[in-house]
Amino acid sequence: MIRILVADDHAVVRQGVKQILADVRDMLVKDEAQNGAETLDKVLKYDYDVVLLDISMPGRSGLEILEDIKAQRPKLAVLILSMHPEEQYAVRALRAGASGYLTKASAPQELIGAIRKAAGGGKYVTASLAEKLADEIEIDPEKLPHERLSNRELEVMLMLARGRSVSDIASELCLSVKTISTYRTRVLSKMGMKKNAELTLYAVHNQLIS
């Protein structure tokens, strides 16, 4: 039996995953978590075979939680299940130790197959992501500006690029306005830009947002 922890701050998503897996004989959703702290607490206390982890949760991001899980439980399989398209976070997630990356638009059978693959010690990579990984190996190793950002800086950058205000971002991430302002300053500096509008143009040009 594959024991699963579903970590997502939206109850409707957790319930949806449970419904998808309810009739799968070799899988059991053993627990749920609605934020990063609860996820880490349960990972350290209980035994799971696979963690389904969202990226956008209150407080610390899913990628930061992923890194903590792999530091504490390196053999535990973690599948990222996110609303964000592969172009934004998939490569970073795999580099941080994820066993795969799926979007929430994925078909139920794809999710089931990915869980089995991860539980067996494999990596679940879609055809499009495999192509992107191959392209990264072949292209010039010089990184694009956004690839030099930390995971949190990238998250803030994408939210700014979508036109979100500093106060809105602070509220969603459960961080102070001052902290988000600091992240914004760092992002603009690392990207060599001065205005949020430049971030938007860059993000659209590089297909980070649509």
Search tags:
210 residues, alpha/beta, Rossmann fold, Arc Repressor Mutant, subunit A, 5 strands, 52% helix
How many beta-strand segments? 5
Q: What's the main sheet like?
A: 5 strands, parallel
Specify the CATH architecture of the largest domain.
Answer: 3-Layer(aba) Sandwich
Tell me the strand percentage band: 5-15%
For the biggest β-sheet, the strand order reads 2-1-3-4-5
Give the averaged pLDDT, no decimals: 90
Give me the CATH superfamily of the largest domain.
Response regulator
Backbone CA Rg: 17 Å
In the predicted model, the low-confidence regions spanning at least 5 consecutive residues are none
Order of helices and strands: EHEHEHEHEHHHHHH
* Tally of separate helices: 10
Helix content: 40-55%
What is the molecular shape?
A: globular
- Reading off the top of the CATH hierarchy, the class of the largest domain is best stated as Alpha Beta
How many structural units, i.e. domains? 2
Q: Determine the CATH topology of the largest domain.
A: Rossmann fold
Please give a structural write-up.
Strand 4 (77-82), helix 4 and strand 5 form a beta-alpha-beta unit. The protein has helices at 11-21, 36-45, 62-72, 86-95, 108-119, 127-138, 151-161, 166-173, 177-191, 196-205, and strands at 2-7, 27-33, 50-53, 77-82, 100-103. It is α/β, with parallel strands linked by helices and 210 residues long. The radius of gyration is 17 Å and the shape is globular. The chain has 2 domains: 2-137, Response regulator (Rossmann fold), CATH 3.40.50; 145-205, Winged helix-like DNA-binding domain superfamily/Winged helix DNA-binding domain (Arc Repressor Mutant, subunit A, Orthogonal Bundle), CATH 1.10.10.10. The protein has a 5-stranded parallel β-sheet, with helices on both faces. Helix content is 52%, strand content 13%. Helix 2 runs parallel beside helix 3.
